[in-house]
Amino acid sequence: MRDLSTADLIALDRQHVWHPYGPMPGTREPLVVESASGVRMRLADGGTELIDGMSSWWSAIHGYNHPVLNDAVRGQLDRMSHVMFGGLTHEPAVALAKRLVDITPEGLEHVFLSDSGSVAVEVAVKMCLQHWRSLGRPEKRRMLTWRGGYHGDTWQPMAVCDPEGGMHELWQGVLPQQVFADAPPAGFDAFDASYADHLHELIGAHAGELAAVIVEPVVQGAGGMRFHSPGYLRALREACDAHDVLLVFDEIATGFGRTGELFAADHAAVAPDVMCVGKALTGGYLSMAATLCTPRVADGISRGEVPVLAHGPTFMGNPLAAAVAGASIDLLLGQDWRTEVKRIESGLREGLAEAAALPGVKEVRVLGAIGVVQLDHPVDMAAATDAAVRAGVWVRPFRDLIYTMPPFVTGDDDVARIARAVCAAAKEG
């Protein structure tokens, strides 16, 4: 296969490979990546390089081909690549669990490892449902969330995504019926007390049937790249405590520094009962996620007729993934990551400011290492993508959004170039 031409690869790709959120066969030729290093991907066309403005769907926070992470994978590979986690354990997984307990909000003491963010959310929902069933309250079986959210593409996560504006409207009437609050008012610095009252009232009205509330804290990701006040997290914590409902934070997209705090929950100094992490967990090297919970949640499950969490992914606790995840966390915390994220935030604010005056642009917003240009119409994905590529940058627009989440190692000149490319995409999209 290494002898195939780029044209042959594209032809075989179109014939056999089903890409995410795409038709089969594909209608648009993907770019063929030959290699990647730092913040650049090299295409198999003889030399084109693109700055990755997406951190490979928000995961490659240290960029590509990082020597520390490479060494972590190689070193673990020499010892063992995988062993089953049922009845066995190993140092990389144990060390990773301890790291996660140490750095996440207080009270999260137990760690369930899985192999993707969507599965981490499945596990979180299952934890909450099984907790109440084990305590003799099976009627507490619904989840509450707010509109505008996105939690993954498997079954329970789809049920708590936005039921109308999200990607899973197709499954209405089939998915479990959950309780939806209004979308949180936009604006990181804009707290609306009446909306906090809305959350309190809705949770109180449904408390008898609610197992948990699940939200993306501070930033709603693929549901619309919207920012909201951390004050709503405090309102949720107060309402859940008052009405005996569990609280779940989905930090898969926001964890590990992306919003300017290590976890988005830290903006509010709030600890959930269950928390999901993924994406940047391994620095973009291997697929791994984790669901953390408090002793209260675990103890509730252990009191049931079935006293075990009924879940067990084949590749749970994979040593390669656990080793590189530990190395990625150490690499992040061993540097002044907060200053780096703030630097990127400043560069995006400056570089994207001109987009606000472009025809068809509704809003420009920046938080941490996240920059968003929202249009007043659905983006022409092909035209916007091509414009960014011509500017030397890879972005992945969707719906009415052109956005960027650069790796934390992106230099100032490259941040400026990313911003110019997003503006160019907004002009064409």
From TrEMBL:
<comment type="subunit">
    <text>Homodimer.</text>
</comment>
<dbReference type="InterPro" id="IPR005814">
    <property type="entry name" value="Aminotrans_3"/>
</dbReference>
<keyword id="KW-0093">Biotin biosynthesis</keyword>
<dbReference type="GO" id="GO:0009102">
    <property type="term" value="P:biotin biosynthetic process"/>
</dbReference>
<feature type="binding site">
    <location>
        <begin position="313"/>
        <end position="314"/>
    </location>
    <ligand>
        <name>pyridoxal 5'-phosphate</name>
    </ligand>
</feature>
<dbReference type="GO" id="GO:0004015">
    <property type="term" value="F:adenosylmethionine-8-amino-7-oxononanoate transaminase activity"/>
</dbReference>
<feature type="binding site">
    <location>
        <position position="279"/>
    </location>
    <ligand>
        <name>substrate</name>
    </ligand>
</feature>
<keyword id="KW-0808">Transferase</keyword>
<dbReference type="GO" id="GO:0030170">
    <property type="term" value="F:pyridoxal phosphate binding"/>
</dbReference>
<feature type="binding site">
    <location>
        <begin position="117"/>
        <end position="118"/>
    </location>
    <ligand>
        <name>pyridoxal 5'-phosphate</name>
    </ligand>
</feature>
<feature type="site" description="Participates in the substrate recognition with KAPA and in a stacking interaction with the adenine ring of SAM">
    <location>
        <position position="21"/>
    </location>
</feature>
<dbReference type="InterPro" id="IPR015421">
    <property type="entry name" value="PyrdxlP-dep_Trfase_major"/>
</dbReference>
<feature type="modified residue" description="N6-(pyridoxal phosphate)lysine">
    <location>
        <position position="279"/>
    </location>
</feature>
<comment type="similarity">
    <text>Belongs to the class-III pyridoxal-phosphate-dependent aminotransferase family. BioA subfamily.</text>
</comment>
<dbReference type="Pfam" id="PF00202">
    <property type="entry name" value="Aminotran_3"/>
</dbReference>
<keyword id="KW-0032">Aminotransferase</keyword>
<dbReference type="InterPro" id="IPR015422">
    <property type="entry name" value="PyrdxlP-dep_Trfase_small"/>
</dbReference>
<dbReference type="InterPro" id="IPR015424">
    <property type="entry name" value="PyrdxlP-dep_Trfase"/>
</dbReference>
<keyword id="KW-0963">Cytoplasm</keyword>
<dbReference type="GO" id="GO:0005737">
    <property type="term" value="C:cytoplasm"/>
</dbReference>
<feature type="binding site">
    <location>
        <position position="312"/>
    </location>
    <ligand>
        <name>substrate</name>
    </ligand>
</feature>
<dbReference type="InterPro" id="IPR049704">
    <property type="entry name" value="Aminotrans_3_PPA_site"/>
</dbReference>
<comment type="function">
    <text>Catalyzes the transfer of the alpha-amino group from S-adenosyl-L-methionine (SAM) to 7-keto-8-aminopelargonic acid (KAPA) to form 7,8-diaminopelargonic acid (DAPA). It is the only aminotransferase known to utilize SAM as an amino donor.</text>
</comment>
<protein>
    <recommendedName>
        <fullName>Adenosylmethionine-8-amino-7-oxononanoate aminotransferase</fullName>
        <ecNumber>2.6.1.62</ecNumber>
    </recommendedName>
</protein>
<keyword id="KW-0663">Pyridoxal phosphate</keyword>
<comment type="pathway">
    <text>Cofactor biosynthesis; biotin biosynthesis; 7,8-diaminononanoate from 8-amino-7-oxononanoate (SAM route): step 1/1.</text>
</comment>
<keyword id="KW-0949">S-adenosyl-L-methionine</keyword>
<feature type="binding site">
    <location>
        <position position="57"/>
    </location>
    <ligand>
        <name>substrate</name>
    </ligand>
</feature>
<feature type="binding site">
    <location>
        <position position="396"/>
    </location>
    <ligand>
        <name>substrate</name>
    </ligand>
</feature>
<dbReference type="InterPro" id="IPR005815">
    <property type="entry name" value="BioA"/>
</dbReference>
<feature type="binding site">
    <location>
        <position position="150"/>
    </location>
    <ligand>
        <name>substrate</name>
    </ligand>
</feature>
<feature type="binding site">
    <location>
        <position position="250"/>
    </location>
    <ligand>
        <name>pyridoxal 5'-phosphate</name>
    </ligand>
</feature>
